[in-house]
Every structure is written in C-alpha cells, then in structure tokens.
Amino acid sequence: MQRMNRNSWFVAASLAAMLTIAGCHKKTPAPPPPPAPPASAPTPVAEINANPDSINPGDASVLTWKTTDANTVSIVGMGAVATSGTTTVHPTQTTTYHLIAQGDGGSADATATVTVNAGGPPPANNVGESNIDENAFEAAVKPVFYDYDSYDVRPDAQSTIQADANYLNQHPELKVVVGGYCDERGSTEYNLALGENRANAAKQALVSAGVSPGRLRTVSYGKEKQFCTDHTEACWQQNRRAQFTLDQ
Amino acid sequence: MIVSLPGKSLTLRFLLSFLLMSGLACGVQAQDWVHIETNQGNPKIVVAAADFKAGSADPLTGGLKSAFDQTLYNDLRAAGILDVVSKSMIPNATPGTPQEINLAQWAAAPSSAAYVAFGTLGVNGGRLMVQGYLYQTANSPNAQVLGKQYTDNANVQASREIAHRFADEIIQQLGGIPGIAETKIYYVSNRTGNKEIWVMDYDGMNERQLTHLGTVSLSPRVSPDNARVAFSSLGKNGWSLRMFSLDLNRLVAFPAWGDTTLSPAWSSDGSRLAFSSARTGDPDIYVCDASGNGEHRVTAFRGPDVSPTWNPKSNAQIAWISGRTGLPQVYIMDADGGNVQRLTDGGYASAPSWSPNGELLAFAWNRSYGPGAPGGEDIYVMDIASKRWTQLTHGEGANDAPSWAPDGRHIVFQREMGGHTEIWMMLADGTNQQQLTHGGGSNTMPNWSWK
After folding, report:
1. Which chain A positions have a beta carbon within 8 Å of B353's beta carbon?
2. How far apart are CA B3 and CA B18, in angstroms?
3. In this structure, are residues A81 and A129 in contact, taking their beta carbons and an 8 Å threshold?
4. Which end of chain B has fewer surrounding CB within 10 Å, N or C?
C-alpha cells in the first residue's frame, strides 16, 4: 500500500515537474493545451490559519497550513512551501496570506489574514532568511525523552525523531543545537557527562534519519537547566530529554 | 627537645588502622557505621589557648585581639589532634610574656593543660604586632616550644591570618605534619544569580568571588602551587576548561576544545591535568599538560566517564567515575589507561577524591539509588588496597563532592538540606562536622587547596 502511494506520488511529481519545465520554455510558440486532469485524481483541499490573527507591529503570528492531494503548494510572496507546515511571520501591516495548492485533480486556494493594529513598537527584524523563529522551530521539532540514567533513544521516541528529521530535511538551511538534559538527582559532573551522551544519542538518531551531522551541534546542560522544578517522577521525566533549538 | 609526638607516618597510620579495624569488625559484606575514635590508644594532647594580652591602647586593638583569640582557638580545635581546653576552664589570666605566665596555674585542674599558647597583640603606628609563645606546662628548664613574632597591617583579616600562621606552627610542633589553618577552599556559589568560582579560608571566613563570567562555572581545582584554578565553564560552544590565575587575578589563556570538556584534576606535581571530554561524541578521560598541550585520550568506554582524580603519591594512577555498566561507579586505572579496576559494587557513586597518602579514596555514594529508592547520598572512604570502606555521614541531608585537606585528616564536602546546599568539613572519620558556608544561595563543589 505504502509503495503504491509512493509510486503514484512519484508519477504525479514527475508530471508536475515536466509541466513546470514546459512552462519555463518562454520561446515555445504555441503553448500546448493543458492536459486534462486524470479522471480519478481528487481535487486538492487547502486550509491555512494564522494564530493570532491580530497582532501589534513587531509581533509575530504563526501560519499553519495543510493540504491534501496537492503536488505543488505555495504561499503568494513566499514561494513554494511544504504540503503542510508552519511558519512564523512578522507582518508590519495587515496582510492576507494566500495559499495555493495544485494537484492532479485541480487546484485549491485558501487565505488567512493577519490584522496589524496601528501604533505600537516598530517591527523587529525577521529571524534569518528562513523566517522561522525559535518558538515556531520548537513547536515543529519536538524533544526526545529518556529513561532514568539512560541515554538510549526509546522505541516510543522513534516517531518523534522521524518527524523532527523530516522537518529538518525540509529546512536544510537550519542549524540546530541538540541540548542534553538530566533530572535533578545525582552528581552534577556525572549528569553533565550523561547529558552529553543523551544529546549525542539524539544527534545520531537524526543523522540516521538523513540529517547531515554538520548541521547538528551537541551541548550538555546536565542538571544545570531544568524545564520543571517539582521533585516528582513526572517532573524528572520532563527534564530527562534532548531538546532541539536553532543554532544562531 | 620536649616534643616527642606522633610523626607523619603514625598520623596517617591511625586513619588506615581505623579503616581496617572497621572492616575486620564487621566483615566486608556487612560494613556499616562503626564508632572508631581517631586517636584511639593515643590520647589527644591537652592544649590551652590564653586570651592574648592587649599590647596597646590603640582603639583598633580590642577588635583585632578578639578576632585573633577566636581564630586561634578555633584553629586548634579544628585540627582534630588536640584536646583544646574550653575557655571556661582556663585560668582567668592573660599573660603577655614568658615572665608573666604562671605555668603551674595552667598545668593544674581544671585546665590540666600540657601546653599553653599565649602572648601579646598590639597596634603601633597602624601596624599590627603579635608575639606568640607555646610553652610546656611541666616544670622544665626548656619549657619554651615556640616563640614567634608577627607584623602586618592593622585589620581584622590580617589579624586572623596571623592567628592561622601561629596555629599552624603549634599544630606542626604537636602533630608532626603541617596544619591546614592557612589553606583555602575553592567552591561554586550561585549567590550572584550565576554559578561562579569563589574562594574562602578553610574556616569559612573571608569569602571572595573569583570569576564573573555570568554563565555556569563548575568544578574548581586549584593547582598544587596555589597559582591557578582550573574549572569548567559553559560558553556558546558548550563546556570548556578555563584557567584563572590567582597571581594576576584574572582568566588566562587555555585551549578551549569545546566538546563538553569537564571536571579538571591536577596531578600533584602540577605538570598534568586529567579531565573528561566528549570530542568523540562519548565522554572519556583525557590527560594534557599544564598548559593544555599534548592532550590524549586515556579511556575508551561507551557511556559517561568523568570526575578523574590522580593518586597524588605517585601520579601513576587515576580514579574516576564511569557509567559503562549503568549507574556510575568508582574505578581506578593506571594513568595510561591500563589495569582498570572497579571499586564500588553498586549503587550510585560520584566525585572521588584521592587522599594525600595515596591509600584512600573519599567519594559520595548512594548505595540504594534508583527509582522508588531515594536512599541517602553519603560520604564514604575506601581503602584502595583492600576495597574496605567506611561511611562518614549518615543521612544528614544529601552529601556530595568530598575533597581531602592536605593534612589527610580533614574532608570538605557539600550537604544539601532543606532545599539549599552548603559546604561542610569534618574529620576523616566523620566526626567534628562543621558547617562553613551559611546561605547566600547554594554553595557547592568544594576543592581544598594543596597547602
């Protein structure tokens, strides 16, 4: 089933690529008539939301979109984007974001408007050309959690690693710090070494999932920085992690 | 000469013998808290410290004399080898010179002192002048053991330092090995909001901040010549070793390898540093020279390897903490990585410190560590040759990071109790526990200077 899907995606992708290439030939005297969509191809569906949809100048809003049955997805003014994803925007004036999804079964579009209130502080610079800030990054690239005194990536963390790797592979310009963290118990020095092992285990898992090791830098925080400060197992579990942050 | 008292070897031997006795008494498998007097069979020498005589009318005199009297008394008591007569038991007299002392009065009950320290403290022209004497109280033509004169600036810290020097002279005379009253303790305090490296006198006085890095600085280790402090610090590229010059009072250049470089340890000749580094992606023990050159890897075990300490007697062995089998355990090896031996048989062990005589390791151990078994974290001492150990603290808070004093008779450590951590010291048999720091954030990772 999976293989069939992948094959049909491949066919569709190469079709789309051929179309794009064909479209670039400006000197073609007479454009061929658009091919009729295959009768079986479903019509794409597109959806985009801005949260919050009303901001002050300088503040950010996160765009979240998803599409189905689309081969080429773009946001007007941003260019091609993933078929689903999130990005952070910092509009300085009220802006409507126009999502266009094209697929074998036609196209769909959706819009989301971010209203920028008058007044307020001047807009801040966007963070990097990728237009992805730390919050959006951490919303997309989730941490990996570890068992007590262990740095083995658990089976239940594999799906997180895969999703994280997918996102990183979609954003090859991003460099990442892999932070290793431990709970509050035990030796300060030993936990720093253990945190390094945790960070490195997460790094290796991402590398195995196709992320270039040159984009990943490990830093151990041991028990020096804690996400949760209660003295309970629930809290300790929160603190035994590898956390991914943008390497800026 | 009058002083015919235990020499160095005997002093060290008492420690070893109490360890062996505890092992023999209880059996290796069933070791537990055993009461062993440190001077069993060797009654402590009874010493009285007179309040010094005010040698001037300068208004500074009273305050400086009070600091001096208190410091001298505390130093003699803290030494652990002397029975210091309580201030309430000594004669109501302040002899300032040998001509003014009535030795029989000090020899008699209730003082019953074998030795008496006394003298004069005065301020003249802004200078503090102290004449200190140690006399044997027994009727003898050679009653004088010590006669010392000190001059320094007229301030409280100088007065305390003179008391430390005089105390160390007395302890050297009566105990046979140098005292620790002039030593320092390096440690980590977060009282500024960040963990920085601090230093204090061995008695907890005279606290002073060394680093102002505004990040996280840990694991201070002073060099054997008291010239530099190595420590690890978190920077943009992770943990590196940093070097603070005590002569220049600032950081000096040291290679920053990054790679989570942690827990430096000086060899006792000051020529080498052992440390943990994760440059391969896995933390291992490395050794470099004192300037950070010639670094090479010594261990190659999967899992955390950290917290090395050299055998200061030979500099041919290193003890460290390894998680190669799971929970961290104490191991020893040759300095080139050969002859690896595991010393602890389970639980969660951390922070080994090798005793000055090369025979003992102090470390923190939680023998029942694990989820659902939040056992006590206590300080233990192990005799390396026999692997027999004795427990020094017994569940009073969570204890960690022991560090030997240069006299091999004292251990400084951290104790977390009631949500904050303070630095304590004790005798190497666990007695005379005394808190050195008092609040102002958490005070951790003490490291006792080599002299």
Report:
1. none
2. 25
3. no
4. N
